[in-house]
Design a protein that fits this description.
globular; single chain; alpha+beta; six-stranded mixed beta sheet; two-stranded antiparallel sheet
Length: 125
């Protein structure tokens, strides 16, 4: 059975998808962009501000589903500009201290002009 996860502490989906889906002990979190759910606006203009908001959004969904950041086993990160890689990594490393597996790629464009997007996979032991 799949359980749809929703929290108002993370941005609502901007398309026909769920914030996250739990299938058994696996949590699939859709790509999170740096939208502040309180204002429904993008976080500040820098990669640090935007990456920080993304991590807060991921944390909110993890908590809603009863998971922690330590349950995350894989992320896929999308950057609009690889010149932001080092600054993005600083924020990422502070949040994902357990160092899950990761892919990080540059893309041409992200929704709402975001500088980054992160999708997450977590497993509850």
């Amino acid at each position: 059975m799949n359980n749809k996860i929703y929290t108002d502490k993370a941005p609502a989906a901007i398309g026909p998808y769920s914030q996250a889906v739990q299938a058994g002990n696996i949590l699939y979190i859709s790509g999170m962009i740096p939208v502040d759910p309180a204002t429904n606006t993008m976080a500040g203009p820098t990669i640090v501000e935007q990456a920080s908001q993304i991590m807060r959004n991921i944390d909110a969904v993890l908590k809603e589903a009863g998971y922690t950041v330590d349950d995350v086993v894989k992320t896929t990160c999308f950057l609009a500009d690889m010149n932001d890689f080092a600054k993005f990594n600083e924020v990422y490393a502070d949040f994902f201290t357990s160092k899950p597996a990761r892919s990080c790629v540059a893309v041409k464009q992200l929704p709402k002009g975001a500088l980054a997007e992160v999708e997450t996979l977590a497993i509850k032991a």
